[in-house]
Write a structure and sequence with these properties.
Elements lengths: L2 H16 L5 H15 L2 H13 L6 H13 L10
Helix pairs in contact: 1-2, 2-4, 3-4
């Protein structure tokens, strides 16, 4: 299993573990918060890129959460010295 497969598996597990919290939207918010708080930037970037390119192995809840997480991440600051 490569790193991306591991991230997909982990995202789906986190989504499954939180799927019973309220509505689907509330569950997605919890999953997105978990990913944002505990995943390294490189992990977040990799799972976001996967969702944008394919995402077919992610559960619908994981897809929604990753989309929410992506929207909540701050853009990288511009280098003002250029």
């Amino acid at each position: 299993m490569n790193q991306l497969d591991t991230l997909i598996h982990m995202a789906n597990q986190i989504a499954d573990n939180n799927s019973h919290y309220g509505t689907q939207e509330e569950a997605a918010i919890r999953v997105a918060a978990h990913l944002k708080k505990f995943w390294a930037r490189s992990m977040k970037q990799q799972i976001i890129a996967y969702l944008q390119q394919d995402g077919s192995n992610l559960t619908p809840l994981a897809q929604t959460a990753i989309t929410q997480m992506q929207a909540s991440l701050r853009p990288e600051p511009a280098n003002l010295c250029d």
